[in-house]
Design brief:
The structure holds two protein chains of two kinds. Chain A contains 19 helices and two strands. Chain A has helices at about 1-20, 25-50, 65-95, 100-120, 125-145, 150-185, 195-200, 205-225, 230-240, 240-270, 275-295, 300-320, 325-355, 365-370, 370-385, 390-405, 410-435, 450-465, 470-480; strands spanning about 55, 60-65. Chain A has a two-stranded antiparallel sheet with strand order 1-2. Chain B has one domain (about 5-190). The radius of gyration of chain B is 18 Å and the shape is globular. Classes of the chains: A mainly alpha, B mainly alpha.
């Protein structure tokens, strides 16, 4: 029942906003829909915490500790981003960058995008997972090109073609998975249901399954932004409106990684080897290193943080690839803190760019003078994402690195060098943007910085103290993933 | 070797699909390209219904009907409307080195057959020999997307790739579960509509659908 609400609210919210999206109350309607989704997600989470995993609707939907935690996170960040986008989009409209019709498209697609992500998380059917991931691309293509500038159109085209081709690989992987599973489970609906696959995974033909995983990893990995398939990501993040960058980075990448991890559970369980895990370690490490070195060459602030997202997604992929209770726990924690911190940073960066009238970092100066809250938000957010001690990112990165030191000592120099390079690159630029002299103008609408500080407070809390029920939740999820 | 009549028809359809994939690779006129795409959809629908008839899989009839409606009628119609409205109906692309592209295509076909051989040996379907062709047409559409520099042919290549994947699903496993196929069809249709809007946005911003204008975003 809760599942139905979680899915129906954003779906109908999207349809309603397609009709009423030009009205004055559209931003409030958008936030209200996201808030209702959050309430439904909280109800679903409490049911799973109390009663454990369950399936619904002829087993078409499946909820366990792993996906319910992502559902709650998606609904939460979806809600705070809708709060942020209310003043942000008003300022953009005030600056003449957006028309009322573009805003209607934005609000409607925002809700439908939430719907596709939640569907991808909740479905038990690997085929529907693919359909929802593809739909998530489709709903965001027009959001990336919302400003209709040549650069944003180019970014959106790249996003569509690269993710479309990438995800076609995942479809082939899904076909192979079905082909292998059909021999065990019989033709028909159940051979793509994850719970059934998981139950019989040791009987599935290992050759086909490992081939299927390669295609699934490449396909969904394109959406995670794993190097060398990451080319669409910096462009889409830099050229789209900031709330879209925040949800792409904070949520969509997580959902794509979720799809990879679900496949990994099947394949490593079936093969009894570390084939899938090792592939993920390789791709993850490559992404971390590659992103760190591209980071230092960026001029555009959103592009820089987009590369930082690639780095962190690589780190999570690496940790999931290592497996084991500690690394998986750390990867789940890192998913949470990264998505909270990165969206907070994008919120602050969005307002900073509006004040300075440019996204180029050389044009953004002295934020702390024009609007102290934006400046402090950016400074604290940057410190958090760089893994400074009191924040949660430090905790998860520390756990990942200590586990890697035991199991994969050869990876240490790469990881540490990459984290060091990233630190130097981002920290230096953040200082220049936050402090110094400025000629920036005040914003025509007061910026919404409640989401920024709410996210950072949560990240700080997760660094100092993880509530016991949350820790238990992560532990259960880690046990499921293995 | 004695192949039943329906099997022969399926094999002929597969051969035609491969031929069309090569034709698309070398076709320079946008209009003819879309017609080839429609023909591909039609052959796909015919072969799916023959598979349905000979294997007594009822759900494959539905999926054949869906293919016919979507890929042989709806998508080509949308594409025809688009190129008329965008005034690119008689556009001819300059393709460099068609012979080299064809040779690369041949190499891809050999590769695809080798890749598919172990899988098709395990398959129990009457269509298992066509899996290699399905993979070859996926790879050929991929090659077509790489060699094209205009927006519409790239999208046709993308749709042709989806056709190849669909053919792979029917030849290896008698098709995916119906709910998944419906979802995929919906995605393809919505994707096509969104791309239609998108083409107009690109034309307004760049005054053409040439993707050569869209190479500004790069790392320097």
């Amino acid at each position: 029942m809760e599942i139905l609400w979680v899915l129906l609210v954003p779906l109908f919210g999207g349809l309603l906003l397609a009709v009423f999206g030009t009205r004055r109350f559209a931003p409030e309607l958008n936030s209200a829909a996201s808030f209702c989704t959050l309430v439904a997600a909280a109800a679903l989470a409490s049911r799973v915490v109390a009663g454990g995993a369950f399936t619904a609707w002829d087993e078409q939907f499946f909820v366990d500790a792993f996906n319910v935690f992502l559902v709650a996170l998606t609904a939460f960040v979806g809600f705070t981003t809708s709060l942020f986008s209310r003043p942000y989009m008003r300022i953009e409209q005030h600056h003449g960058k957006l028309t009322a019709n573009m805003l209607r498209l934005y609000y409607s697609m925002y809700q439908l995008f939430s719907f596709t992500m939640l569907l991808a998380l909740l479905t038990n059917n690997m085929g529907i997972l693919w359909v929802a991931m593809e739909a998530a691309t489709l709903t965001t293509v027009l959001l990336v090109s919302l400003y209709r500038t040549p650069a944003s159109l180019e970014a959106a085209w790249k996003y569509f073609i690269l993710c479309g081709v990438g995800i076609a690989q995942a479809l082939f992987g899904t076909i192979l998975l079905y082909f292998a599973a059909e021999k065990v489970l019989g033709a028909g609906g159940t051979a793509l249901l994850w719970t059934h696959l998981n139950a019989v995974k040791t009987d599935i033909d290992p050759t086909v399954l490992s081939l299927a995983f390669v295609f699934l990893l490449v396909g969904y990995g394109t959406k995670v932004g794993l190097a060398p398939l990451h080319n669409w990501l910096p462009d889409a993040h830099a050229e789209g409106p900031t709330p879209v960058s925040a949800v792409l980075s904070g949520l969509l990448l997580n959902v794509a990684l979720y799809a990879v991890v679900r496949s990994k559970v099947l394949v490593d369980g079936a093969l009894g080897t570390r084939f899938a895990g090792d592939l993920m370690i390789g791709f993850g490490l490559l992404s971390v290193v590659m992103a760190a070195f591209f980071l230092s060459r960026q001029k555009d602030v959103k592009r820089m943080f987009a590369y930082s997202s690639i780095e962190h997604m690589g780190l999570m992929t690496f940790a999931f690839g290592m497996g084991g209770p500690v690394a998986t726990f750390a990867a789940l924690l890192h998913m949470t803190v990264h998505s909270l911190t990165k969206s907070a940073i994008f919120f602050a960066v969005g307002h900073a760019a509006q004040e300075s009238g440019t996204q180029l970092m050389e044009g953004i100066r002295g934020l702390i003078k024009t609007s102290p809250t934006v400046g402090w938000g950016l400074a604290l957010g940057t410190l958090a994402i760089l893994g400074m001690p009191p924040f949660g990112v430090f905790t998860s990165e520390f756990m990942i690195i200590t586990t890697a030191m035991h199991g994969y000592p050869w990876a240490m120099p790469f990881l540490l060098a990459a984290l060091g390079v990233a630190f130097a690159a981002i920290f230096g630029r953040m200082q220049l943007m936050v402090f110094g002299e400025t000629a920036g103008a005040r914003l025509p609408h007061p910026p919404a910085l409640l989401p920024v500080f709410a996210h950072l407070a949560l990240v700080l809390m997760l660094g100092l103290y993880i509530p016991p029920y949350l820790a238990e939740w992560y532990r259960q999820a880690a046990a499921l993933i293995g | 070797m004695n192949i039943p009549f329906s099997g022969q028809i399926i094999n002929m359809c597969a051969a035609l699909l491969l031929l069309i994939a090569f034709a698309m690779l070398s076709q320079r006129r946008i209009l003819s390209l879309i017609n080839l795409f429609a023909l591909q959809g039609l052959i796909l629908a015919v072969s799916t219904s023959v598979v349905a008839y000979s294997s007594h899989q009822v759900h494959l009839y539905y999926s054949a009907a869906l293919t016919l409606l979507l890929k042989a009628v709806a998508l080509p119609l949308i594409l025809h409307r688009l190129i008329r409205k965008l005034n690119v109906k008689w556009d001819v692309e300059t393709l460099f080195n068609i012979p080299t592209t064809m040779l690369a295509g041949l190499a891809l076909v050999v590769f695809a057959f080798n890749l598919a051989a172990p899988i098709s040996q395990m398959a129990g379907t009457i269509t298992k020999s066509t899996l290699g062709i399905a993979m070859a047409s996926v790879l050929l559409s991929f090659l077509m997307m790489i060699t094209r520099s205009k927006a519409v042919p790239q999208v046709v290549g993308f749709l042709a790739m989806e056709n190849g994947l669909f053919f792979a699903a029917t030849s290896a496993t008698y098709g995916m579960p119906m709910v998944v196929e419906l979802g995929i069809a919906l995605d393809v249709l919505v994707g096509m509509l969104i791309l239609g809007i998108f083409f107009f946005q690109i034309r307004t911003a760049f005054d053409s659908l040439d993707l050569e204008h869209m190479e500004k975003l790069k790392e320097d």
